[in-house]
Design brief:
The structure holds three protein chains of three kinds. Chain A is an all-alpha fold. Chain A is 78% helix and 0% strand. In chain A, α2 (37-50) crosses α3. Chain A starts with a helix and ends with a helix. Chain B is flat and about 40 Å long. Chain B has one domain (2-73). Chain B has helices at residues 2-21, 25-45, 49-73. Chain B is an all-alpha fold. Chain C is mainly α. Chain C has helices at 4-26, 35-61, 64-89, 114-138. In chain C, α1 packs across α2 (35-61), α2 crosses α4 (114-138) and α3 (64-89) packs antiparallel against α4. Chain C is elongated, with a radius of gyration of 18 Å. Chain C starts with a helix and ends with a helix. Classes of the chains: A mainly alpha, B mainly alpha, C mainly alpha. Chains in contact: A-C, B-C.
């Protein structure tokens, strides 16, 4: 019974996703939802305002600097989490004893 | 160019299904690495070399090394 | 790993790979790449060193203390650069309006603070990769 419900839900989700594919813009056109004033602004003013010839670096580090800072903090948090769970004090003690 | 894209996407779908089905975890990691490498070629064909470099370095390199390190602590075969 | 072929090939490969990673970080603002990809490449070479020459030698190259310093140093560099813009222009992370030198478009010294931020991100990602690997393989066997 569980399997039947799961399969029906899976098929419904699959149909919805396939319909969504046909709703997508097929080629890079001006009708795409992602194409708005921000894109024009970045392409026209980005090189002047950031003075970096790689526009993506300009957007990542200058216009979206806060997002990059948050990304770094996520990496920091992941290392701290792994370290607090897995850090072995035994290994460090052995190294210290050998020295 | 369209045929290359279709071939790559079919390869990616087969890789993704095989990762779910395979019982050998090291084989799954190797398949995941191949998936990331082909995905980076797809990013390059989509004119985004930044994402392609990052995908090749992180997806195919570091992620598989970390998975191998974790598998070396546990068992190789899924039950 | 006690194999003379692998050890010698590793000694030859690592400088070139690290040079490529540094190139990608420093050219992040004028060509594809950036701090994230270059840091991942340098971190992979350090992981390769640890795998081939063993944990003891790897610990000498990149100890836990150094991991702590670089882990927080990358973010500190980022935040300090942002604070300089806050003092001079009144907004966090303000680049050219904050008085950072503009440079010539397309040269390696251009783009205000973007190269400095890329170096900070590179240090951060490098130490993240090698620290995660070290923490995972150091764990005592249960």
């Amino acid at each position: 019974m569980k399997n039947v419900i799961a399969n029906i839900l899976f098929i419904v989700l699959f149909i919805i996703l396939v319909i969504a594919i046909f709703e997508m813009p097929t080629s890079p056109s001006t009708n795409a939802p992602a194409y708005n004033d921000v894109v024009d602004y970045y392409v026209e003013e980005g090189a002047d305002e950031t003075n970096a010839s790689n526009l993506i670096a300009g957007i990542l580090a200058d216009y979206r600097g806060f997002d990059t800072l948050g990304e770094n903090i996520v990496l920091f948090t992941s290392v701290v989490a792994v370290g607090s769970v897995l850090r072995s004090t035994k290994y460090d003690k052995e190294v210290k004893d050998n020295e | 160019m369209v045929y290359i894209n279709v071939f790559i996407i079919i390869f990616l779908i087969i890789c993704a299904l095989a990762i779910g089905k395979i019982k050998d975890l090291i084989g799954a990691v190797v398949l995941f690495s191949a998936y990331s490498l082909v995905m980076s070629i797809l990013w390059l064909l989509l004119n985004s070399p930044d994402v392609a470099i990052t995908e090749a370095a992180i997806g195919a390199g570091v992620t598989s090394i970390l998975f191998f390190a974790v598998i070396s602590k546990t068992k190789r075969y899924e039950k | 790993m006690n194999d003379i072929i692998i050890k010698n090939i590793t000694r030859i490969i690592i400088p070139f790979a690290q040079m490529y990673g540094i190139f990608i970080i420093l050219n992040g603002h004028i060509s594809p790449g950036g701090g994230f990809a270059g840091g991942a490449i340098i971190g992979t070479t350090l992981i390769l060193y640890t795998l081939v020459f063993g944990r003891e030698k790897g610990k000498k190259k990149f100890s836990h203390k150094m991991s702590e310093i670089s882990e927080s140093g990358g973010i500190m560099l980022f935040v300090i650069i942002g604070m300089i813009g806050m003092i001079t222009a009144g907004a966090f992370l303000s680049n050219l309006s904050g008085g950072f030198p503009q440079g010539q478009l397309g040269e390696i010294l251009s783009g205000g603070f973007i190269p400095i931020l890329m170096i900070g991100i590179g240090i951060k990602v490098t130490s993240t990769m090698i620290s995660l690997f070290n923490l995972l393989i150091d764990e005592e066997k249960l």
